[in-house]
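Figure S7 source data.
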Amino acid sequence: MAQQDPTENPIQSMLTLQEIAMAARQSMDPMMWDFVSGGAESETTLRRNRQALDRLAFRPRVLRDVLDVDPSTTFLGCDLRIPVFFAPVGLMQLIWPDGGIANQIRAAESFGILTMKSCINEPEIEDVAALSPGRIAFQLYVRGDADWVDAQAQRAVDAGCQGFCLCVDLARYGRRERDLLNGFVLRRYSPIDESTALAQLDWATVDRLRTKLDMPMIIKGIATAEDARLAVEHGVDVIYVSNHGGRQLDHNRGSIQMLGEIVEAVGDKAEVVIDGGFMRGTDILKAIALGARAVGLGKLQVWALAAGGEAALVRCLEILEEEIITAMGLLGVTSLGQLDTSYITAVEPVSEPGITSSYPRFE
Ligand SMILES: Cc1cc2nc3c(=O)[nH]c(=O)nc-3n(C[C@H](O)[C@H](O)[C@H](O)COP(=O)(O)O)c2cc1C
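Tokens for the predicted flavin mononucleotide complex:
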């Protein structure tokens, strides 16, 4: 077979996730790279997301038949080809003006995962829902009174979304010092003023929405067993463990450090998903072994979009799938359900955690 000419289709010729991250770095304006990739204040939470994942090693089992490995699962009643979904990421129209978040939605549809669409994405939910019926959840930042919130929820219902996600870790906008020092002001770009505090948002809001919404409800930004338990008591269907990728509260725990106590608190009363620092198939399998149903991609998703729109997003998922299948085979499992905490142990990390430290050839 003739060797593929990489100049013909540079995206298809990418073999590794580090190439996607590097292509994003090269194509993005440095201020935009900082906005997407940076975190709050000292970026301790951001780095801890990575460090906490790097502090986990596998305990593989051998001499098992791993000819047929199946990395699929279900989440929100939807089949996922790999245990991954696109986390809500706002303002994608600034990264890829041709279609913005529609690129993620099309890529998720063609590959076979689910997109959580942020309320601060263009196009609006009404204009993209038909691109991927049954594979979109709608994420809301509460920025209005009860009537406004209810109207947003109704939009998700009318658009036929699979779930309604309330993001609750943005009671204040995190101090992202890269953006402050770069003079990167979102108000200049967006009709939404990201610097304002949320409107009234408490458990009563959750209760009100729960009675009105006839669809699974997801709370994004749960960081403790206490709040996970409360969420279950308030009828929440999906606990989304997250520290907003280190963009909000600094000196938080790494998100994978929160997972164990939350999975234990929730039991089988809700699904648990997670995001924060996931850059590799092995990262994703660590979360599954600790009890998560699926993992959200934040920065990696945005980098793939910046690297080449829909095609690069699909390529990113294909590479992740290869990584996941390879690692499952090497762990001695053929389905995700076989993974449990016995496959994981604590170790010392081998490298300094950083934004791209998962990619040692990143330049
Ligand atoms: C550029 C960018 C925009 C984001 N916008 C939103 C948003 O609109 N709504 C939301 O709930 N989370 C938002 N997040 C947070 C992500 O949903 C997710 O929690 C986080 O990125 C996961 O960490 P990771 O980037 O290390 O994967 C955003 C993250 C990034 C990087």
